[in-house]
Q: What sequence folds into this?
């Protein structure tokens, strides 16, 4: 039986996505063995994250400034807007460096099962943003999951009232595929071959 301090840390880490109790325990042991070398840098990075990072009031990206670096970059094409479910998807697309426009993060996907409604996501903000004009194309870059596609269809319907071209990622995406897990080539292909929402 480990000490209370260790159990508390294991419990906190095992709540992280992708880390179950077993791997959390391994990570904690690794850190304890290296508490002189690895721990200070980790603590500093965590404290910095807490202090310095904010959510962009325009697009929902996480950055050190609001508006974020992408929203504030004048070289970005302000006429193209790419809608994603999560910040991780924005980062995945932006790593691929193929989309020159700006983004809008929904903060999740519609789900009848989990009770996620349009007003629980940044959908009203999206409609307001598109309604202000100056945008020619909205790319719906939802995950190729059932809920992702339901969300894309809902958005396409709501966006119909605006004079914008609505496209979505090509279905080179594997079924059930989450953007965040795709390699850059697949992602680039899906973005390049994007097509109008039918
Ligand atoms: Zn932003």
A:
């Amino acid at each position: 039986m480990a000490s209370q301090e260790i159990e508390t840390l294991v419990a906190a880490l095992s709540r992280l996505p992708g880390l179950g109790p077993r791997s959390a325990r391994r990570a904690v042991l690794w850190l304890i063995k290296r508490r002189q070398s690895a721990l200070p840098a980790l603590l500093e990075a965590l404290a910095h994250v807490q202090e310095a990072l904010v959510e962009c009031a325009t697009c929902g990206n996480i950055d050190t400034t609001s508006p974020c670096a992408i929203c504030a970059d004048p070289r970005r094409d302000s006429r193209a807007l790419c809608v994603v479910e999560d910040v991780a998807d924005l980062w995945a697309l932006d790593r691929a460096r193929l989309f020159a426009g700006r983004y809008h993060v929904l903060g999740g996907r519609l789900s009848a099962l989990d009770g996620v409604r349009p007003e629980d996501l940044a959908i009203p903000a999206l409609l307001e943003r598109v309604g202000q004009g100056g945008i020619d194309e909205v790319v719906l870059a939802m995950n190729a999951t059932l809920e992702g596609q339901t969300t894309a269809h809902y958005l396409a319907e709501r966006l119909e009232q605006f004079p914008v071209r609505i496209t979505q990622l090509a279905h080179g995406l594997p079924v059930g595929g989450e953007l965040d897990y795709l390699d850059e080539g697949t992602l680039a292909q899906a973005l390049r071959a994007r097509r109008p929402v039918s």
